[in-house]
Structure formats: C-alpha cells, structure tokens
Write a structure and sequence with these properties.
- By secondary structure, this protein is an alpha/beta fold.
- It has helices at residues 18-29, 46-52, 66-75, 99-127, 149-168, 187-191, 201-214, 223-240; strands at residues 9-13, 34-39, 56-60, 81-84, 132-136, 175-179, 218-219.
- Helix 1 (18-29) packs across helix 7 (201-214), helix 3 (66-75) runs parallel beside helix 4 (99-127) and helix 4 (99-127) packs parallel to helix 5 (149-168).
- The two termini are 32 Å apart.
- Residues 8-187 form the Ketoreductase domain.
C-alpha cells in the first residue's frame, strides 16, 4: 500500500519538539492540509500555530491517559495519518536497583501508549479509507545496549506490537510503518550523551513520509540505523514481513 499525504490530515504525538516537531514541519512541507499537534500541554504548541496558522491544530494527548486519547480520536475524526512519536527513556541496566521501576515506566508509555493510540484511532482510520499508522520504534528494538537495557526492552515490545498491527490493520486498508532511528539530536539524545555525531530529526521525518509513500514496513533513517537495518534486512524480509500462517503446532 502506498499513500500520498498531500491534502491529507496528519496527527503527531509529541509534536512540540525534537523528532515530533520535525515530522510536523515535513508534513507541512509535503502538502498536508492539516496537522494535529498532539501534546500534553496545549500551550506548548503555540509557536507552531504562530508559524503555520490554521494548518496546525493543537490537540491534547497524553499517551499515559486513555481518556485523553479517546477524546482526541473523537475530535480528530478527519485524520488520515497517525504518527505515534511520543516516548520516554530511562537509563537503567538490567541489574540496576531501579530497573523494574524504569521498565514499568517505559512500558506504560512506549508500549501501552502505542496500544492505546492504535485502539482509539484504528476505527477512525478505517472510516477514512485506511490511511496510515506510524510508530516510532528504534534501533534499540532489535539491539540491546546494556546502559539502557530497560528502554531497549520496551522498544522491542513496541516493535512486536507494531508487527501485530501491520497484520491486524491490513484488512481495513491501513498501512503500518515501523521507524527505527539510531542516535538522534534531540533533548532525549543529549541526555543519553549521543553528542554531535547523532543524526538529524529531519532525516527521521523524511524517512517516515518516504516510507509511507513507498509502502514500506521498516524505515531506517540515519547512518547508524541504516547500518543495523542492512544487517537485519534478510531477517526482516524473510521472516518479519513474510506472510506466515500462524500455527498451534
């Protein structure tokens, strides 16, 4: 399935900064007619409205709050593309004293938040001829780094859910895209110590809309991601993206 976002309506969680803001800017550049800037604090989207006018519509979503997501899905009934960008990262290895608490926090946002978004917006996308659902995963979905092992675990889980969504939403005509950035220059990236060698959020935004346009399932936006994606490609094509019949055997 391929999809052109020109004259379409896009919703982006965490749209007020970092990767989310870059995605919003790219959507506007590519001709989206409206972009819902989904943020926890509506006032934080004011600079985006000031810059782009009524093409940007702030809407409250906290992916930790199912009621806010349900309300937003009712309000944004015209949405064609949902980009679930919001996420969190703790710095805990598997034997840290706070590892379990860190993982619980990350799972609630990175995995359960994804599921809340998909459950709320899948019917909306179906009613609008399918559209696309995009999930920001990570290279950490397929490779664990010990210093933030709990984050990697949450992203591996979100990637598993994204694979399930690809199959579950296919029949309603919704294209699902799993995006796997490496280290990116964001506030989160700075906190992780990625430094100036990290990739640009703009690269992630471009990869998302290129991936939607080309009907891809995986997107590997930056140099580090592309190296990992290249090594992972055979498994991705022959196992993850293959149409396999589920068996109880």
């Amino acid at each position: 399935m391929t999809f052109d976002i020109k004259n379409k309506t896009v919703l982006i969680t965490g749209a007020n900064r970092g990767i989310g803001k870059a995605i919003l800017e790219e959507a506007i550049t590519r001709g989206a007619s409206k972009v819902y800037a989904a943020v926890r604090d509506i006032d934080s989207a004011a600079p985006l409205v000031e810059k782009h006018g009524d093409r940007v519509v702030p809407i409250r979503i906290d992916v930790d709050d199912a009621a806010s997501i349900k309300s937003a899905a009712e309000e944004a009934s015209d949405v064609d593309v949902v980009v679930n960008n919001a996420g969190v990262m703790k710095f805990a290895n598997a034997i840290s004293d706070d590892a379990i608490e860190a993982l619980q926090f990350e799972m609630n946002v990175n995995v359960y938040g994804l599921m809340r978004m998909a459950q709320a917006f899948a019917p909306t996308l179906k009613s609008n001829r399918g559209g696309a659902f995009v999930q920001l995963n990570s290279v950490a979905s397929v490779k664990t780094f010990s210093d933030f092992a709990t984050y990697c675990a949450s992203k591996a889980a979100s990637y598993a859910i994204t694979q399930g969504l690809r199959d579950s939403l296919r029949d309603q005509g919704t294209h699902v895209l799993s995006v796997h950035p490496g280290p990116i220059q964001t506030d989160m990236g700075d906190a992780a110590g990625f430094g100036d060698s990290a990739g640009s959020p703009v690269d992630v935004a471009k990869a998302i809309f290129d991936g939607i346009a080309n009907g891809n399932f995986h997107a590997w936006p930056d140099e580090v991601a592309q190296q990992i994606g290249s090594a992972y490609q055979s498994f991705a094509e022959n196992v993850v993206e293959a149409d396999m019949q589920e068996s109880l055997a």
